[in-house]
Amino acid sequence: MSTAPDEVLVRIRGLRFLRGSRVIFDGVDMDIPRGKVTAIMGPSGTGKTTLLKLIGGQLRPDAGTVEVDGQDVHKLSTDALYALRMRMGMLFQSGALLTDLSVFDNVAFPLREHTGLTESMIRKLVLLKLEAVGLRGARELMPAELSGGMARRVALARAVALDPMMIMYDEPFTGQDPISMGVLVKLIRQLNDAARLTSVMVSHDVAEAGSIADHVYILSGGKVVDQGLAADLAQHGSDWTRQFLKGSPDGPVPFHYQARPLVDDLLERTA
Amino acid sequence: MIRVLASLGRAGIGAVGGVGRAGVLLVAMFAGLWELLKRPLLLVEQVYSVGTLTMVIIAVSGLFVGMALGLQGFYILSQFGAEATLGVMVSASLVRELGPVLTALLFAGRAGSALTAEIGLMKATEQLAGLEMMAVNPIRRVLTPRLLAGVIALPLLAALFSALGVLGGWYVGVGLLGVDDGTFWAQMQAKVDWYDDVINGLIKAAVFGFACTWIAVYQGYDCVPTSEGVSRATTRTVVHSALAVLGLNVVLTALMFGN
C-alpha cells in the first residue's frame, strides 16, 4: 500500500483464525489508514464481525498479528488491553445498550467508569454527545422504548463518549429503514471528519458503505480478494468484486447450486 | 454399545470442562472483590435485587412451613404427653435444617434463575461484549457483586424464614391447640443453642448462598447466547442448585452436628 507506516492505525499481518476446524481467516493482511473511513465488505458468513473482535482483542488469532497504534493487541497484558480499548469505540449491530439504564445513563456509563469527572461535567458531556446524534430530547427514555435506528445512534454517542481514536462499526446499516440509514451514513462520516477519528466499518450494504468509505477491503473465503478506493473497485475490480458490488444474481458466483443438467433430472424415472 | 460409551465419555468430558470453567470464573470473580470495596453501591443494588425482592416468598413460605410443623409436631408429641417441647421441635428443625435448605431452594428458583436469565440475556444481546469494548471487565462489574450479594442475602433470608416459621408454629401450637405460652418459649430458650444451632444454620445458609449464586452466574455467563440457550441455562441453574444444596446439606450436617 502507498500509505506511510505512521499513517496506518491498524496493521494486520498473516492473520489466521479457526472456529473449530473451520478456517475463517487464512493469511489476511490489512492496513487501515488513520483518519479515514475504511469499509470491510464481504458476503454473509465471511467473518467480518470476527475480524472486529480480533482487532478489539476479544478473540485471539491462531496465527498472525494485529497491531493497533503500534501495539500488538494480543501480546498486551489485561490492563494494557483495557487501556487500549478506552481509545477504541465499538458500535455493535444490536447497539448493546445496557437495558436497565436510561439513554442518558448509558452514554454517561463509560465516563462514570473511567473518569473522575463531576456529575455536572458528565451531564454537559452527555448532552453534547447526544446532541451530536440528534437525541438530546430522548435522554429520559429506556432502551426498550427506542427504535432500532435510535438505539444505534445512542450507542454511537456512547462509543464516542471517551473521545476515542477509532470506532469500529459492526453492520451499522443492517435492518434500518431508508431514513435512519441516511442518518447513520451522515453521522459516521461527520463524526469521522469532525473528531478526526478513524472509522472501520464492516458491512454488506454496498451502496451505503461504498458511499462514505475512503478505502474498501473485500473479504471472501478467508482472504482479502480485493482492495482499493471505493470508486475504483466498481470499475476495475475483479469479476467477482464487480458482481458483489453490483449485486448481480449471476457471475463468478453462480446462481445455480452445483447440479447435473436439468434434462437429466427431469427424464429420470423414479423407481 | 460403542456409541453409548462414546456419548457417556463426551458427557463426562463436558461436565469436567464445565467444572473447570466455573472454577476459572470463580477466581476471576474473586479478583474483583477489592474493587467492589471501593464501590459498595454496586453491592447494595444487588443485595436489593436478589435479597429484598425475594423476601415475600421467603416470609410466606416460612410462615406456612412453621404452621405445618406446629400441627405435625403437636400430634406426635402429644401422644407422649410432650407437647410442652413443641417450641424446641419447631425452632430446632427450622434453624438447623429446614430454614437454610428450603430458603436456598426457594432462592435458587426465584433469584438464581433470574440471575442466570439476566446474565444470559446480557450475553445474547452483546451487552457483556459491549462492556468489554468499553474497557469495563464484565466479570468484575456484573458478576462479582451478584456473587457476594447472594452470600450476604441468603443467611438473612434464612433467618427471616426461621423467625416466621417459629411464629407460625407458635400461632398453631399456642394459639389454636392450647400449648402453654410460657412453656413454649422457655423450652425453646433452654434447648436451642445460639452457637450450635443458630450460627451453624446461618453458616449453612451462607455456603448455600455461595453455591447457588456461583451456579447461577456461571450458567448465565457460560450459556449459549440464544433464547433457547438461555432457557436451558435457567433450567440447569435450578436443577444444579437444588442438587448442590441438598448434597452440601448432608455434608455440612455431618460436620456440624455429627457428634
Defining traits:
heterodimer; A: 271 residues; alpha/beta; 6-stranded mixed β-sheet; 4-stranded antiparallel β-sheet; 10 helices; 37% helix; globular; B: 259 residues; mainly alpha; 2 domains
Description:
The complex is a heterodimer of chains A (271) and B (259). Chain A has 271 residues and is α/β, with parallel strands linked by helices. Helix content of chain A is 37%, strand content 24%. In chain A, strand 9 and strand 10 form a beta hairpin. Chain B has 259 residues and is mainly α. Chain B has 2 domains: 1-31; 42-257, no CATH class. In chain B, helix 5 (86-124) packs antiparallel against helix 7, helix 5 runs parallel beside helix 9 and helix 5 runs antiparallel to helix 10. Chain B starts with a helix and ends with a helix. Chain A binds chain B through residues 53, 56, 58, 82-83, 85-86, 88-90, 92-94, 96-99, 109-110, 113-114, 155, 158, and chain B through 121-122, 125-127, 129-130, 132-137, 141.
Short description:
The complex is a heterodimer of chains A (about 270) and B (about 260). Chain A has 10 helices and 10 strands.
What proportion of the residues of chain B is helical, as a percent range? over 70%
Unreliable sequence segments of chain B: none
SSE order of chain A: EEEHEEHEHHHEHEHEEHHH
Quaternary structure of the protein = heterodimer
- pLDDT below 50 for ≥5 consecutive residues: which ranges of chain A? none
> Helix/strand-derived class of chain B?
mainly alpha
Q: How many strand segments of chain A? A: 10
Strand content of chain A: 15-25%
The Rg value of chain B, from CA coordinates, equals: 21 Å
In round numbers, the mean pLDDT of chain A is: 86
Helix content of chain A: 25-40%
Total strands of chain B: 0
**Terminus-to-terminus distance of chain A:** 61 Å
Mean pLDDT of chain B: 92
- Helix and strand pattern of chain B: HHHHHHHHHH
User: What's the Cα radius of gyration of chain A?
Assistant: 21 Å
**Largest interface chains and counts:** A-B, 23 and 14 residues
Biggest beta sheet summary of chain B: none
Secondary structure category of chain A: alpha/beta
Largest sheet of chain A: 6 strands, mixed
How many domains of chain B, as an integer? 2
